[in-house]
Fold this protein.
Amino acid sequence: MISPRLKEMLEAVGQCRVLADIGTDHAYLPIEAIRAGFCETAIACDIVHGPLKMAEFNIRAAGFAGRIETRLGDGLQPLAPNEADCITIAGMGGKNIMHILSAAPQTAENARLILQPQHDLEDLRRFLHANSYNILEEKLVHEKSKKQSRFYVILIASYTTDLITPWTDADYFLGQINSPHLHEYLREKHRKISGYINSVSDISAQKLAQQRLEWIYEKLEDLGVPPQTPQTF
C-alpha cells in the first residue's frame, strides 16, 4: 500500500515513455509506475549505495528487473539528455532540487518535472520561473497518522520558450493550489508563522511574516472563508 503522497505523484506522472526517479530511496515510485502502466521503463537513481541496494532488491521482488534500471550518481548526472521524458524528484529541500536542476539543465529541460520539495517552496517557484519552467499545476496532499499530520505540495513543471509572466509575491509564497484541503493547509501555515513572529526580535523579519499572514487572510477571503483573528483562526 503506497502513501497518499506517492499516489498523488503517480497520478501526476500520467503516461510517459521513460520515468527517472531521482533520490529513489527504495524505488517505490518507479515500481508502482511500472505496475500501473504509467511508463514503459524506469530509471531509479540515488547518490547513496545503501538505498540503491535496497531499491534493487525491491525491484527484483516486484518482478521488474528487466524494466527498471538502477544508477548510482548525484542528481541528474546518471541520465543523458532526452533519455527520460518524465523526471520525479521528491523528499528533499527545494534548494537541493534547484541545485539538481541547475547542474544538468539540458536533461531537465527535455522532461516533464514532478517535484515534491520538503521546504523552500517559495524559492523553488521563483527559480522555476526564472529558469523558463512553467508551473503547470500544484497538488496538495494531506497525510494523517496517529503521530502526525503533514501537508505536501507537488509541483508539475515543464520547460518553455514562451515568456513567463511573473507571479505576485503572494503567489510565490502561497502557490496556486486547488485542493479541498487548502483551508487546512493555510491554517497550518498561519500557526507556524504566528509562532515564528513570537520567537524573533528582528523588526524586518516580523514585518515580512506579518505580510505573509495578511496574504493568508486574503486567500481565505477568496475561498469564501471569513478572515479571522489569530486567536480564532
